[in-house]
Fold:
Amino acid sequence: MDFPMLAMAMEQFVLLGEMTGSDALALLSRILHTTCGATLLGGAVYLRFVLAPVAGQDNAEQVLFAGRRKAWAACVGICTLLLLVSGFYNLGLIVSTYEKMEPPYHGLLGLKILLALGLFVVSALIAGKSSGAEKVRKSLKWWLNVAVVLALGIFVCGAVLRSIPHIPKAPPIESEAPAFDAPPTEETTEGANEDEDATIPTLPSLQSPASDL
Structure:
C-alpha cells in the first residue's frame, strides 16, 4: 500500500536533518512571520465578530479585554516587532538569493508593506490606552473591520508573491589562477648540478701512464 503523503513527509524530515545554520534561521524567520501575522488576524476576527457586537461605547474596553488590555497590547507589540524583523530579514534573503523579480512583484511587495504598517497602527490603537485609542474604541466595529481587511489583504499579497516564479542566482564562477613554479632554492640548484655531473660520462685520460715513457 502506497502512502505518498507519508513519503513526502519523510523526505522533508530528511531535508531538515541536512539543513545548515543559515537554512534553519531562514525557516525560523518564516515561521515567526507567519505565526505573528496569523495572531493579529485571528485577534482582530475574534474581537470583531465575537466581542464587538455586545460592546457599547462606554464599556468597550471592559467587554473586549476583561481587564486584560495590557496583555493584548503586549502581544500586539511583540508580534509587530517580530513581523518587522522577520520581514526585513526575509526580504534581504530573497534579494541575495534570487534574480531581480518582475515589476508586479515590487508593486505587490510595496502594497503588502503599506497594509502591514496600517495594520500595526490600527491594532496598537485598539489595544492602546491613549486618548486616540479611546476615540478608536468608540467606533470599534468600523476600526475592527479595517483591521480584518488589512490583515486579509496582507495574506493575499503574500500568497500571490509566493506564486511568482523565483529564479535563483547563478553561483559565481571561480577563475583559477595560473600555477607558477616556485623559484629554485640553493639546495635544489646544488642537487640539480650533482645530477647533471652524475650523468656526464667520464672520458679517458689523454696522458700516457708512466710505465710507457
User: Anything to note?
Assistant: The two ends are 110 Å apart (CA to CA). Residues 203-213 have pLDDT under 50 and may be disordered.
